[in-house]
Every structure is written in C-alpha cells, then in structure tokens.
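Ticket #4471: structure export looks truncated?
Reporter: QA, pipeline team
Priority: medium

Steps to reproduce: submit the single chain below to the structure queue and open the exported record.
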Amino acid sequence: MRIVSGIQPTGNLHLGNYLGAIRNWVSMQDDAAASGGPKDRQCLYFLADLHAISQPHVPADLANATREMTAALVACGIDAVGGGGLGRAILFNQAQVPQHAELQWLLNGTARMGWLNRMTQWKDKAGKNAEGSSVALFTYPVLQAADVLLYQATHVPVGEDQKQHLELARDIAQKFNNDFAPEDKPVFTLPQPIIPGEAARIMSLRDGSAKMSKSDPSDMSRINLTDDADTIMSKVKKAKSDADALPSEKPGLEGRPEATNLVGIYAAMAGTSVDAVLSDFGGKGFGAFKPALGTLLVEKLGPINTRFLELRADRPALDAILRDGAARARALATPTLNAAYDALGLVRG
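Actual output as written to the record:
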C-alpha cells in the first residue's frame, strides 16, 4: 500500500487543512508504522510548488511559503527527518523531483482536451478569462495525475472537490496502459480514493455556508495554525453565530450553518461526536459554548504553534528535510519514469 498526497504552499495552514487533510496524513503515517513499517505501507507527502506557478505568484513568497509549510506539517506531526535520518513519512517539494514534470509531459500525449475541458476546477479558476489563463492551469490535472502515477500510488486521500481529478488520473493511466503496455505488465497502478469523513469539512468563521479558506481576504474567517492563544480566543468569540441556544440533538442544528460549523469543530478537535457535544452543551448559548471551544482549540493547537515557531527559525533543518525527502522520492520515481519512456519507444542512450 502506497499513499501519495500533496498540498500547495500558498500560505499558512489553517484549521480546515489540519482537520480535513493533515491530521489524516499523520494518522495514515502512524498506521503505516503500526502495520509493519515502510515495506507494508509508504506515505509520500509533497508540497506542490510546481502547481503553484500555474497562477500569478511572487517567487520570493513561494520559496518562503514552501519552507514555512514544511515547518507547519512537521509541527502537526508529519515524521520527516532531515540529515540522512529516515522518518515514517517522505516529505518533499515537487521542484526537487524533476520526474514529476517529465512524466506530465509524457502523459500529455495520452490526456485528451475533452477530458480537461470538463474539469470543474478549471472552469472555476479560469472563470470568464479562460483565454487569458495559463496553459499550466489548464493542464494542472495532468500534473496531478503524474504526481500519483509516478509512485505507483495505491491510494490517494481526496476531498470531494478533488475526486474528479483522481478519476482523470485513473482514465489517463488506463488509456496509457491499454495503448502502450502489455496486458499482463501495465506501466501504471490505478489509484483508489480515500475520502475523508464528515468532520473534515470545516467552514468559515464568518460564513457557515463557505469553506474555510486561505484565500478568504478576512483573516477572521479562519483559525491559522500559526495563531497564538489570544488570537484563537478572539477569533472564536467573534465568530458568527445566532441568538438561539444550542439544541440537545443533532436535528436541531438544521438551518443553522454557523452553529453546525462551531459544534462540528468542537467535535472534531475533541475526538467525539456532534451528538456528544450537544448532550453536554444543549440548552446553553454561545456565550458559554464559545469560550469552551476556544479553550479546547488553544489546548490542542498550542503545541503545534510552539513547534512551528521553532522550526520556522531553523532554515537549514527545513532544507535538509526537503532535500532528504526528495532524494528518497526520486529513487522511488525513477523506475516508473523509465518504464514510461520505454513504453513510448523513446530512445535515451
């Protein structure tokens, strides 16, 4: 079993990233160790800096964000060791593994314009300016396919918004295998999705109907993993809610998106169910619930914040983590890339 997943280094991680992806990454990494180690399950996690250049960006900001996100991931519990050590996960950035870009070009011959035109994220990101968007934005899903097919990934954690892209990766892999590989010796493994559970969908603190996002212009809409205790408490207390008391049972949250979000955050952070939270706080108003939620968040996120600040100040350590992770990733990627070149009849001397 080999799990591959990535995240764009476009800004600080927030609570939605942590509960929706990063905490699952840590769990999968820990499960791998418990199941017998890397021989039975490998976890590769990457910072998608090649994806980041599909949109306008400031080069210095991207470099800083890549290192900063590395610090945040390690602070959250990703066990990636630099300096020649072997952690339970392989953490790297795409730019140090050129096989990603090479395989994308090879797969461009198999991907079809019609497939890419149907990608809903392309339509959303390009909007009315499709003609002015970069080619990289249009072919973004082919690079995503390369990201996972390169490592013979068996499983890929995806949210609902990325499920279409994984289906495209499977289509590309299947067509490539059918067109260029013997039936009994396919070049690529067709990866299966791992869909996060219900608690993974964390909404904005300012609008319970909108997903918590790094791109929201209001910093009050999200809990950043870099926020200190005072900032967390302030954001929770100012989070949008309503005047009614919390219900004692889950059906009472219907039609109350902000209340649903705050209760869901509490349940996810406490490792319990929404019903259990409502059993404790049913009949109480947000004047009582918000301080309790803020205290819980400070307790759980405080150690992450402390570790992050230590790591962010140690650039050599961060560079060593990415460098060592990239070396391990390149070793795993090379056989698949070579097989793809051979299947296509490309002579490389």
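Status: closed, not a bug. The export was complete when the record was re-opened. Leaving a note from the reviewer for reference: The chain has a mean pLDDT of 91.
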